[in-house]
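Quarterly update from the structural biology core.
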Amino acid sequence: MNITKKPATAATPRAAKPRRGGRPSLQQAADIQVSILDAAEALFLKTGFSSTGIEAIAKRAGTSKATVYARFSSKEALFIAVSNRVLSTHFSPMVLSSGSLQERLNDLALQMLDALLDPKILRMYRIIMAESERFPELARLSDNKSAFAGQDLLETLLADEQAAGNLGNYELALLSQLFIASVVLEPLRLESLGLRSFDMAARRQWVDLVVNIFLNGCQQRQEL
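Predicted structure, tokenized:
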């Protein structure tokens, strides 16, 4: 009697068991970090800094207070991380248009204003200003280059114009700070206080005025 052997079948591999206990994997750790930042951002923007607690953030993120504190030493540190993320991910890279100096300054100023008057940025600005006395480190968030997108680009443009003899010999850092402050601070203040809304037409009108005054001042000083 012929006996036909059945071909050997490969053993079915066991499904990998999910990790239980112990330290999370690198991907799990990254996911937890993102969940905490997402939860914190949503709550900070909704209820403000003072009214948001770590327990509420942990609950929304689906984790524990201990896990939050293992990654962020304090609520202030978490807020700074959230603010930095909002600033770094919200602003798209700015570009200089072609044309005259006035046209390029107008275009760059309008890009700055559009970025900083975004509702999420406005809400973050209100929170920072409200907490600046208690936590000065939060106020410093609004006083660095990441908070004013395009500052490096502006300084490059002004340096080129100085080299070409089109602007007076002013310190570039101060000149760029003066320009940015003139462009954004008053609209930012009025919008954040709810005193005025700057639609596109109002933004263009404001930018035209600021750029004209800025250039007239620099060029008049150059001619003296």
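The chain has two domains: 27-88, 93-218.
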